[in-house]
Design goal:
Layout (H helix, E strand, L loop, with lengths): L2 H11 L5 H4 L5 H6 L4 E10 L5 E7 L10 E2 L2 E3 L7 H13 L7 E5 L3 E2 L4 E10 L12 E8 H4 L6 E7 L2 E10 L2 E4 H13 L3
Parallel strand pairs: 1-7
Antiparallel strand pairs: 1-4, 2-3, 2-8, 5-7, 6-7, 9-10, 10-11
Organism: Sphingomonas donggukensis
Keywords: Hydrolase, Magnesium, Manganese, Metal-binding
Pfam families: NUDIX (PF00293)
């Protein structure tokens, strides 16, 4: 069975994310009174190797929003984008020079509502290993790969607490080597690990 076939089957037989993971750190009251979220998409690119990995980026430290954080390639869905899949592929090409034709798309998975007013749709895809990726200097400081077995391991999904806008917020984080994956990216990973019957 190929990696594409394994992921497709895993997605079909997995379970939908819980409201906690789909609504992020928004309380029911905040969700009720919040304006319609801006739509965004990210690419969860999995490398087709014996030990599959997941591509992640480290955002440039000079960015105004989320500087230095670990993230999937992605961003806002533009009016010219046909759908979340098209947006995720376009953003990955802009951020890390990943050719959309090099991605075998499995499909979109459960979207995630962030506390900053976005609904983010992760798009699952498979790519060949060791592609020549080039980070966009103004946005991306680094591109790296984390083993899929690490990303999907519930034992590595730890809960943390912090203050944001005067309120206590609970979030997930994943430690790997010298990297800290947290916030929306970690929550989408946790959701994906529950969705995939891997």
């Amino acid at each position: 069975m190929t990696l594409v076939e394994r992921l497709t089957a895993a997605l079909e037989h997995g379970r939908r994310g819980t409201p906690e993971l789909l609504e992020g750190d928004m309380t029911p009251f905040e969700l009720e009174g919040a304006p319609a979220p801006a739509e965004a998409a990210v690419l969860v690119a999995i490398t087709d190797r014996a030990e599959p990995g997941v591509l992640l980026t480290e955002r440039n430290a000079n960015l105004r929003k989320h500087p230095g954080q670990v993230a999937f390639p992605g961003g806002r869905i533009d009016p010219d984008d046909h759908d979340a899949i098209a947006a995720a592929l376009r953003e990955a090409q802009e951020e890390i020079a990943l050719d959309p034709a090099a991605v075998t798309v499995i499909g979109a998975v459960d979207s995630y509502r962030t506390g900053t007013g976005y609904r983010v749709t992760p798009v699952l895809g498979v790519i060949a290993p060791d592609l020549p990726l080039i980070p966009a200097e103004d946005e991306v400081a680094d591109v790296f790969e984390v083993p899929l077995s690490v990303i999907l391991d519930p034992a590595r999904h730890t809960r943390a607490v912090g203050m944001w806008k005067g309120k206590e917020r609970h979030y997930y984080q994943i430690e790997w080597q010298d990297r800290r994956i947290w916030g929306a990216t970690a929550a989408m990973i946790v959701n994906l690990s529950r969705r995939l019957a891997w």
